[in-house]
Amino acid sequence: MLSVIVFVPLAAAAVLAAAPGVPDRWARWAWLAVSTVEVALVAVVVAGYDTPAAGGLAFEERVRWIPSVGSSYHVGVDGLSLPLLALTAAVFTACAGHAVREEHRPRAQAALFLFLEFTCFGLFVAQDLILFFLFFDLSIVGMYFAIAGWGHGQRARSAMKFFLYTFLGSLALLLGFIGLYLAADPHTFDIPELVAAAPLAGSPGVGGLVLAALLLGLAVKTPTVPFHTWLPPAHTDASAIGSAVLAAILLKMGTYGFVRIAMPALPDAWRAWSWAILTIGVVSVLYGALVALAQTNVKRMIAYTSVNHMGYVVLAVGAAGVVADGAREARELAVTGAVTQMVSHGLITAALFLLAGVLQERTGSYEMDHYGGLAGPAPRFAALFAIGAFASLGLPGFSGFVAEFQIFAGSIGATWGAALALPGILVTAALFLRALQRVFTGPTRGKSHGFGDLRAHELWPVAALLTLALLIGVVPWPLLDLVAPASATVVDLVSR
Amino acid sequence: MTGASPTGAALLWVVVALPAVVGAGLATAGRRADRPAPAVAIATAAVALVAGTAVAVLRPAVRVPFVPGADLGLGVDALSAVVVPTVAAVTLLVLVFAAGDITEHRARFFGLMLLFAAAVAVTATATTLPTLLFAWEVMGATSFALIGFSWRQGHRVAAGTTAFVTTRTADLGLYLAAGAALAGGAGLALADLPDAADPWRDVVAAGVLVAALGKAAQLPFSSWLSRAMEGPSPVSALLHSAAMVAMGGYLLLRTAPLLAATGWAATAAAWAGALTALLLGAVAVAQRDLKQLLAASTSAQLGFVVLAAGVAAVAGGTAHLVAHAATKALLFLVAGAWLSALGTKQLDALRGAARRWPAVGVTASVGLLALAGVVPLSLWATKDEVLAAAKASSPALYLVGLAAAGLSAAYAAKVLWLVWQPLPDDAEAGLDDEEPGTRRIGSVQRRPLGVLAVGAAVLGLLVWPPVGERLRAALGEAGAPAPGPVELAVSAVLAIAVVLAVARRPVPEPDWARSWLGLGTATRTVVVSPVLRLAHALARFDDRVLDGAVEAGARGTVLAAREAAVADDTGFDGAAEGVAVLVRRLGGFARRTQTGLLHQYYVQAAAVLGAALLMLLVATT
Fold first, then answer.
1. Which of A339, B42, B272, B588 has the most CB atoms within 10 Å of its CB?
2. Angle between helices A456-474 and A82-98 (to 10 degrees)
3. CA B401/CA B304 separation, integer angstroms
4. Which residues 117-146 on chain B approach chain A with CB closer than 8 angstroms?
């Protein structure tokens, strides 16, 4: 079943890429149709999902692949990956919906994004490091073409920067994977086997180095301060849907790697270095928020809030490594919050980037000062952006609050240091309200004149994403029931 | 998810969910819902009021799962049984007024007001910390949206931003409290917070205290309330006096056992409340804008509620909160009615306003006399109930509180005498400075004023027997200190004396008080500007240093590659070429022997043979 989910988009991409005769119209709708089918397939998996025993997987498949290095085609899902699978299906469908009016090489774009969808699904179900790495790098390649081919501004340069930076990061990741492989006896790239063996438990020096390599690789992709500077140009120059996929899904590959691989496979090193991870988290939260506050470009601002939001995740997984007496419940809450945040940020930031793309599409400018009073000519746009902004700043009723409440309550419950990040949610509030104020309120001026309001294909994908964020915000327990057992397992594993 | 009574539980859901759903629907429906919005909203608020009254009797409790280890819990106890119907009633009356007062974008306005009403109902009935924080911040967001309701005027939206960011600063306390409660092992139920282990209990108490002071516009957070007056008057009446700001005081009443358990937090709350009552009372006296005066007065009056929580006078604090809600909602609506009719809220221009519409003037006077603490109106009795507990706790607190009561009389009297003065000859001077006035106050606006005036007059019953005794008993304070005849007489005489004195001579309006103690300026210079400067400095650092380093690294790599290419060309390739040249040269040498001349070959052969012979000889010897 998982293989079907993974390979259907690839097959569709191959057909679209190989058939130049397909009319543009068909290509666009085919993409939307395939994405919708993927949503249905993921829904089937969610419906059929029974929480497996601790450390176990559901819908597991394992096929011989490269036996000489102990690598197999091994896929499966648990409470950490299934929510991200669902997020991937939702965000790509929203993007397909947004792109039904795309005029610029729609067939190639559909093929490329279906290929990207394949890499994202593949990464989240991968239970083998080689497989994980393969999808990790393929996603970088796909996104390079998405930025270079459909971006604007200095797209070639931004795409190249994105590619080289994250590719370099992936090499560090590969180094860490090889370290794990060599330390395991017998040698293996299989994630559950590595997690069960925790191969470097007895050697803090090597364990620390392997963890450092993994952290570096994942930190570039997440991204955390100071490895984030590829993100703003990549977002600014990418198309709306490119930005949405990049922020919503690709960034999660980094944070997912923390909970899937680094924490459970290297528990001793993780505990030993948890203070450093916590510090990176706190710095990313505060730094990301403050730099975002100073931005005048809407897309750059949202990009920096991603650094801030991913900082909460890093903060939480760092706090989960601070093993103290009696704070077990708090650490589980922190990890659950981290996974919730991945989903929440995916939904909300995808919505905000799809909306920000409308600015570029109408006037070619993301500069806040070029607008003013935009709520007059574009009330629907203003309303959705305001809702997205409040969701992003963690307003209760939306998923961001559920995530951030758990992250803060859990992390502070585990270690006081986490409280240092609290001003982050304040600065985020200030920066979003300032942006709303500058772009949408006051007298209508500048490029706001004659600004057309959202059309159906711009409205509904965003509304759907924000509705999901609202649902999770009001009724979070179906999601949390899925995540919490897996968080408990991760906390168990890291406490070994 | 059931409480003691299934009917009660269902009604509790009606109280919180009905306004939320209808409000969200109206707020997002767009202009087409403008026409039915007031009627729909008023009907919803009426249903909520009926249900709210019913749950006050039935006392249901409900729980639904939210996050692991912390359910969303709602419950009605003796405290919320008083507050929920009060807030629901004020909401209904304010919405009726707004049906006449708000003429544009009604769907958005009434939708947001209903969303707010739902949030305040959840706040009042919350039994766990996540529930409280959930509703707490939604109140803040609706406050932002309603202050900036007229979004074409940028300064109004900016005022909303200030309000939201200031109150959220204080809200961080609740996030901190949640973490500390988990660490302290007490869980996240509000009632269990006093059981948290030391030192976490202190952190929980500090967090709750800060959050409450922020929402209640107590010192040092008061100035956001001044800016919040940019909002429409019905918003000021409901959010920025009767309900949202009051919820700050309410939270402390609810968590009074926690404050008391720490020892220091109760004292801190008591003094924060008393000093706010005193200083913001002085601020109110000095204002020349009616809404600014009422706003400062709101902070000051809630100071008494916060003081009550600090000295464990929950019944007295609750009574004061309820009586103040009716009184202040009334006065804000009157201010709104005058603003819409006369286009101004400047006190100078409102000279004689009560004489233009005497019925409105009479209700305003009831509210102002109650606010002044004139016997026998409501706030006189409720305030004395609080002050009696303060006196039992510390004489200094009592004296500060009494001085604050005197200031209430002063600012209320200032308005009272002014609006009843004869209309000046140039009656139109100073009018319409804010908006073009309509010169009329419709019956839709007038009716709620009368109801609220009755409330302002009689809600003092909440402290008198038999209601007062039952309330105290229900809140477990049967033996709480009650004001004696002397104290009641002292405050009654004080109020009347001050009111009469203000009639004779104008009150002082010193700059420090007129400018709200400079709190807004101080916040800008001490917090906002440095943070913005830091943000810009970090953004430059990000571009120049961090990104610069990456770019430099990339350039360095390209440069190194170029050098390597040069080295490759001149070094490795040069060496290889050199070898080739050498070999070619040697080849050239070798070729030179191949002359094709036989005699030279013989010479070469002889030379080689000679050399071989020589080597053989050397080797053998």
1. A339
2. 160
3. 8
4. 130, 133-138, 141, 144
User: Crossing angle for the helix pair B358-372 and B443-458, nearest 10 degrees?
Assistant: 30
Whole-angstrom distance, CA of residue B12 vs CA of residue B545: 57
Residues of B in contact with A423 (CB under 8 A): 172
Q: Provide the 8-state DSSP code for A51.
A: P
Judged by DSSP in three states, B463 sits in coil
Q: What is the pLDDT of residues B157-191, one digit of tens each?
A: 999 999 999 999 999 999 999 989 888 888 888 88
Q: Is B75 exposed, middle or buried (0-12, 13-18, 19+ CB in 10 A)?
A: buried
Q: Shortest Cα distance from A201 to chain B (angstroms)?
A: 28
In angstroms, rounded to a whole number, what is the distance separating the alpha carbons of residues A384 and B432? 35
Alpha carbon B224 to its chain's center: 9
Contact: A430, B165; criterion CB under 8 Å: yes
How far apart, in Å, are the Cα atoms of B90 and each of A360, B302, B443, B557?
Answer: 46, 17, 18, 70
Q: Do A291 and B172 lie within an 8 Å CB cutoff? A: no
Using a CB-CB cut-off of 8 Å, the residues of chain B touching A476 are 66-67
Instruction: Report the distance separating Cα B59 and Cα B565, nearest Å.
Output: 83
**Any CB–CB contact under 8 A between B411 and chain A?**
no
pLDDT tens digits for A12-40? Answer: 999 999 988 888 888 999 999 999 999 99
CA gap B328, B241 in Å, rounded: 6
Measured between beta carbons, which residues in chain A are less than 8 angstroms from residue B138? 395-397
Q: Which residues pair with A190 in a beta bridge?
A: A128
- Chain B interface, best mutation among A51, A295, A433, A481, by max B CB count within 10 A: A433
Both ends of chain A: CA-CA distance in Å?
A: 33
DSSP secondary structure of B286-319: H-SBHHHHHHHHHHHHHHHHHHHHHTT-HHHHHH
**B394 in contact with A, Cβ within 8 Å:** no
Q: Do B141 and A390 touch (CB under 8 A)?
A: yes
pLDDT, position A325: 59
Of B161, B178, B538, the CB nearest to A405: B178
Q: How far apart are CA B520 and CA B223, in angstroms?
A: 6
Domain spans, chain B:
1-127, 128-514, 528-620
